[in-house]
Design goal:
Number of domains: 1
Oligomer: single chain
Strand content: under 5%
Shape: elongated
Structural class: mainly alpha
Helix content: over 70%
Number of helices: 6
Largest sheet: none
Distance between the termini: 30 Å
Amino acid sequence: MTHPLERLGDPAARRAFWLVLLATLAAMLTLASLDGALRTAAAPRGIVSFELAGSLPAAESMLDSWGESGRLRAGFSLGLDYLFLVLYANAIALAVLLVARRIPGSALARVAALLAWGQYAAAAFDAVENAALAQLLFGAREELWPRLALFCALPKFALVAAGILYAVVGGVTAAVGRSRS
């Protein structure tokens, strides 16, 4: 199995990684600044609490605690998250693939393409999660929406964490291998 980003040569892949990483960090900082106002007793982790609410009463409690201005911030945050999910998926996929090039033939290198595709799956889960949360923001009051958001958030977080962990462990493995050579 190959990943489309594997077609990039090393210099192009590194440049793309740094550009996408910088854009990802800028979007992350913007999202974090929006999230501060969403941290309430009902939503101690801001938008992440909303993503993980899992039930209509919990989601409604968070929406009520935010008030109108908080709901507007949450809506803007969800909209911006559609850009963010494209950025982080590509940044992590590129990191995974670049690390795999540094450890060819290893067990870690053999799973790189699958894990890079996993970042696109995480982005797809994130997009569906955002749509479910938007339904709640727009006034839908069906139990389906917070459950769907939770159902999508959990694998999204797991795939993103796996990609980041791979990049860190693989990067350390490559660095240790280079220092031994």
